[in-house]
Description:
The structure holds two protein chains of two kinds. By secondary structure, chain A is an all-alpha fold. Chain A contains 14 helices and no strands. Chain A has a single domain, classed as MetI-like (MetI-like fold). Helix content of chain A is 74%, strand content 0%. The longest helix of chain A has 34 residues. The radius of gyration of chain A is 25 Å and the shape is globular. By secondary structure, chain B is mostly helical. Chain B has two domains: 51 residues; 217 residues, Orthogonal Bundle (MetI-like fold), CATH 1.10.3720.10. In chain B, 79% of the residues lie in helices and 0% in strands. Chain B is flat and about 75 Å long. The interface between A and B is large, with 107 and 104 residues.
Amino acid sequence: xxxxxxxxxxxxxxxxxxxxxxxxxxxxxxxxxxxxxxxxxxxxxxxxxxxxxxxxxxxxxxxxxxxxxxxxxxxxxxxxxxxxxxxxxxxxxxxxxxxxxxxxxxxxxxxxxxxxxxxxxxxxxxxxxxxxxxxxxxxxxxxxxxxxxxxxxxxxxxxxxxxxxxxxxxxxxxxxxxxxxxxxxxxxxxxxxxxxxxxxxxxxxxxxxxxxxxxxxxxxxxxxxxxxxxxxxxxxxxxxxxxxxxxxxxxxxxxxxxxxxxxxxxxxxxxxxxxxxxxxxxxxxxxxxxxxxxxxxxxxx
Amino acid sequence: xxxxxxxxxxxxxxxxxxxxxxxxxxxxxxxxxxxxxxxxxxxxxxxxxxxxxxxxxxxxxxxxxxxxxxxxxxxxxxxxxxxxxxxxxxxxxxxxxxxxxxxxxxxxxxxxxxxxxxxxxxxxxxxxxxxxxxxxxxxxxxxxxxxxxxxxxxxxxxxxxxxxxxxxxxxxxxxxxxxxxxxxxxxxxxxxxxxxxxxxxxxxxxxxxxxxxxxxxxxxxxxxxxxxxxxxxxxxxxxxxxxxxxxxxxxxxxxxxxxxxxxxxxxxxxxxxxxxxxxxxxxxxxxxxxxxxx
Lengths: 301, 294
């Protein structure tokens, strides 16, 4: 199968040694991934069908864990909240990321400085970002309440994270703050790689700014937007820090999401049920991952 | 905006003036929006720093946007018992070790996949990408069991091993992209001059991919530095806590901890902020080419 020729072939005395060399180079990564990702992945699926608790290997119990979870209100909150967070924050990040990318993409003096500043949330550690937002949202000591009351925008102090009506929006705003730079910079790179000739041709054809945006810009950056949406959805749906550090799923499950629910299951030592929580996500997750991998592989070719 | 100018110059004079006015309005609106966005981005960071420098009185009782007295009390309170410094040290050990291991073996793997053709190459490529996208929220339960069986639970070695689950796929995926950009002819030239193939990898491909290696190293370090969920599940004793974990436990304590918490947050972001300002160019390029969460 090797197609090496010339000096290489001579040095290694033919294809076999070369192939062996190729396999030897790739082996450590493959073995570690098989052992640390593939095996645990399958193991998690197995565990979700057992009544495993800490200290026992557990018996096969069929779909019992899945049935039990489906009967709890926390589980349904987690489904609903996970979907809400993913959809709402994807839309917000797209709008903000695209908007800012279009602004910075103009020939504005000082655009480099704006770009550096707008990337800052991405460069911060996620746990630092969410702990900071936790403080910002506090009724006492929080910057947002201070601004709202001092400017007279809203007279009363709001317990953003402790109130059912505001907790979810607060989590979403914080994760949009931390997550939009990824969209911003991906879309900006895509904008910069759109061939100028396309715009010139559109101007010759008499297209106005809007028509150029819809007929040239959007189609050219659509592949990037699709991949970004898929990746961001996978990461957001499986994100743990943003909910854990802000609300830990509360108040009364108002912000409960799958990863936090699985973590709580783990803490109560009922590993079978905890694993079932993660496994419940698999069908949707697999579709997203399959789409994302095939698009990323194609882009790579 | 050249196009607008061209259109304007071709038009009659009053149309020219109106185009000019439109252009200026556009500029003003653009800058206004960008400045608002930058303020919204900076305010939380400002609040973190300012809260870390405030006396408790100004945090809780008479809150203010700008502190009247600046103090380093929060920092000394946080650092007093040495526990937080220990967790920073732990974070450094874990993140650097993961970075070194990951960059070395991933560059071998990426090189093999870019330069050679063999039967399972496609499968391995897909496996690596799947592994990259397999979320930690799915793996933390089985990995905690596996680590306990390997007697690596509650240890920095265990964390290092577990962090390879996200760093190896990411590094390999990114490095493939960089290695593809190194012309094969350069290596062949080197081999004619007497290098072995492994020598060509070390002496030609790796140095030419230095920006890529830098980006990959930074992403790996950042990923390990930021990780919370695995650390939360795998470690129990204080002596092996990493920085995110130490801060996580600070908010579960009874006393109102915002001052020291923000001091810890500020300290924890220093290494990454330095990396960002030094290597922003590589990072942004790497991020857009390889889709990196950061």
